[in-house]
Amino acid sequence: MNQAKLKPEEIQAYREAFDYYDWNKSGTIPTKELQYAMRRAGQNPTDVEVQDLINNIDDGSGTMDFEDFLQVMKEKVREFDIEIHFKDTFRVFSKDQEGCIPADELKFVLNHLPGKINHKEIEDMIETVDRNGDGRISYSEFRVMMGGFPLIIPNDPVMQMKIAEKVSTIKRSEI
Fold it and tell me: Fewest CB within 10 A of the end CB: N or C in the chain?
């Protein structure tokens, strides 16, 4: 595996986290210890994220070596870097006090990009991304537009409506 993108001190920290769970000094750790090793290395993955990572790297042995662990950590660091990129890019466009991008501002920028995007495509994109139809793009909506996974924001009126509908459906089915 290419370790060029990791700094020596990062590799050392990851080695220490890995070695802590390599109880028998075999050069491998049980995949069930991955979440603990990642947390020791400074990450805080969810159970679902860890299971996805295990599904991608487990060869059926139920263990992973240090190279596999480095690959996992590089992927998590890359995800973090992408989140920073999303936030920095959002800040460039978000000029209002409420932390949103006016749809008109986004239309203006998209109209002046080198690649030709027609007005219909821009309107469709904004209509798709602006989930609550307020004419402003929130950070969560922006992430989705940039290809990120959606965030669930409790104050999102659309999400609140969907949650209320789900609760109502559940209550009706219990009667």
Answer: C
Q: What pLDDT is attached to residue 168?
A: 73
Contacts of residue 146, Cβ cutoff 8 Å, sequence gap at least 6: 86, 89
Q: Determine phi and psi for 64, rounding to 5 degrees.
A: -140, 150
Tokens for 146? Answer: 């940039």
pLDDT (average), residues 87-114: 81
* Beta carbons within 10 angstroms of residue 111's beta carbon: 12
Please report the sign of the dihedral spanned by the C-alpha atoms of residue 97, residue 80, residue 105, residue 135. Answer: negative
The secondary structure of residue 5, as a DSSP letter, is T
Torsion angle of the four alpha carbons 146, 150, 152, 157, in this order, in degrees rounded to the nearest 10? 70
Q: What are the pLDDT digits (tens) for 140-152?
A: 888 888 877 666 5
Q: Which of 78, 83, 90 is nearest to 142 (CA)?
A: 90
**Radius of gyration, CA atoms only, the chain:** 22
Q: Which residues pair with 101 in a beta bridge?
A: 137
**Which residues are within 8 A (CB) of 98 and not within 5 positions of it... i.e. 6 or more apart?**
136
Half-sphere exposure at residue 63, Cβ-oriented, CA atoms within 13 angstroms: 13
Number of Cβ within a 10 Å radius of residue 23: 10
